[in-house]
Amino acid sequence: DQQVKQNSPSLSVQEGRISILNCDYTNSMFDYFLWYKKYPAEGPTFLISISSIKDKNEDGRFTVFLNKSAKHLSLHIVPSQPGDSAVYFCAATSSGYSTLTFGKGTMLLVSP
Amino acid sequence: DTAVSQTPKYLVTQMGNDKSIKCEQNLGHDTMYWYKQDSKKFLKIMFSYNNKELIINETVPNRFSPKSPDKAHLNLHINSLELGDSAVYFCASSQGMGNTEAFFGQGTRLTVV
């Protein structure tokens, strides 16, 4: 039972354009959401997070949007850079549960 | 200076063997985890420890035994390895439990032949 879904296994974007990665969740108890970036043969690296009391959080080129009614969040990267090419994992947790539930990941390829 | 380090990075072993993976964090965190990434690429929680106490054991076979000698270490021992145990195992740590980010090690790719 996938509680966090990333329905796009891959995304290709040109350098300088916007990358939009999507994530859906089913568990209404989730109230904290995170995005991780993962390069091959490395562990996931924390990128950005958002609490359910917000609908947007921004950090430099990265912005996460949360739509609680739709149980949907997205990560926007603008402008995209070739170094952003990696697998991006969406994760969710709740204040009453200590661990992260991950999506399957979306591989982003940013071409020059 | 690596924040969460795990050894070894690669491990190839035969079925039936017993092996251990070590994990250390120098972030001063009080919570540590083991996650497993299987062939379908899902990252799933196996264990969670807070202040050396087991908090979560997500229906992992009892062939897997975590041990936390102190807050900075969480080792994973696996008995009687099976082919299906082949996966990438990630150690992680966080400060507190709940709504906080976890920091991951580089992973250990275990191959059982």
Any overview of this molecule?
The complex is a heterodimer of chains A (112) and B (113). Chain A is mainly β and 112 residues long. Chain A has strands at 4-5, 10-14, 19-25, 32-38, 45-51, 56-59, 62-67, 72-77, 86-94, 97-102, 106-111. The mean pLDDT of chain A is 95. Chain B has 113 residues and is an all-beta fold. In chain B, a hairpin with a 2-residue loop joins strand 7 (64-70) and strand 8 (73-78). Classes of the chains: A mainly beta (112), B mainly beta (113).
What is the fold's blueprint, element by element?
The complex is a heterodimer of chains A (112) and B (113).
Chain A: E1 4-5, E2 10-14, E3 19-25, E4 32-38, E5 45-51, E6 56-59, E7 62-67, E8 72-77, E9 86-94, E10 97-102, E11 106-111
Parallel strand pairs in A: 2-11
Antiparallel strand pairs in A: 1-3, 3-8, 4-5, 4-9, 6-7, 7-8, 9-10, 9-11
Chain B: E1 4-7, E2 10-13, E3 19-25, E4 31-37, E5 43-50, E6 53-57, E7 64-70, E8 73-78, E9 87-94, E10 103-104, E11 108-112
Parallel strand pairs in B: 2-11
Antiparallel strand pairs in B: 1-3, 3-8, 4-5, 4-9, 5-6, 7-8, 9-10, 9-11
Which stretches of chain B of 5+ consecutive residues score pLDDT under 50? none
Rg of chain B: 13 Å
* Beta-strand proportion of chain B: over 45%
What is the approximate shape of chain B? globular
Number of helices of chain B: 0
Cα shape of chain A: globular
Through-space gap between termini of chain A: 38 Å
Mean pLDDT of chain A, as a whole number?
95
The helix-strand sequence of chain B is EEEEEEEEEEE
Largest sheet of chain A: 6 strands, mixed
Q: Give me the count of strands of chain B.
A: 11
Tell me the distance between the termini of chain B.
Answer: 34 Å
Beta-strand proportion of chain A = over 45%
Total count of strands of chain A: 11
Structural class per helix/strand content of chain A? mainly beta
Provide the low-confidence segments of chain A as ranges.
none
Oligomer category: heterodimer
Topology order of chain A in helix (H) and strand (E) letters: EEEEEEEEEEE
